[in-house]
Amino acid sequence: MGFNEMQMTRFHNNLKSCCLEKKFPAHRKFNMDETVISTYNNNISPNRTPNVITPKGKKTVCKISSAERDQTITAICCMNATGVFVPPTLILPRKRMNPLLYKDASNGTLSLISDTGYMHSHLLIDWQKHFVKHAKPSAEDLVLLVVDNHTSNC
Q1: Which tops the pLDDT comparison, 148 or 43?
Q2: Among 29, 78, 99, 102, which has the highest number of CB atoms less than 10 A from its own CB?
Q3: How buried is 141 (Cβ within 10 angstroms: 0-12 exposed, 13-18 middle, 19+ buried)?
Q4: Which of 121, 147, 104, 151 is nearest to 11 (CA)?
């Protein structure tokens, strides 16, 4: 479903009536979006080894690299209207999880994998559990979560 004026008007009317009815405080209004990051670096020629920076005195330098020249990673970010973030989610294009790939990720980062590196409906359920864990919604303390209408979010 694409962007058009009628859909946007309906969305804003629904959002307004929901906010008026439930009276969500700013810290209970969340927005989630996903972005795709390409690992392709066109500044490095295929015949040239990139420079590597390591701690002084380090004898061995290891690198996990992909056979693919261009892969995608999906980052899912969510924050509330007061600027508080739910820890991010990263989806890597892999068949098996490798914990070393997330070793230096921010505390609380949800690590997921998919064949393509993109979000799909099963991973969305994992992300929703992650969101509930951090936003802590309840019957007495509801949250509003706004997401786009991308097919992976349905």
Answers
A1: 148
A2: 78
A3: exposed
A4: 147
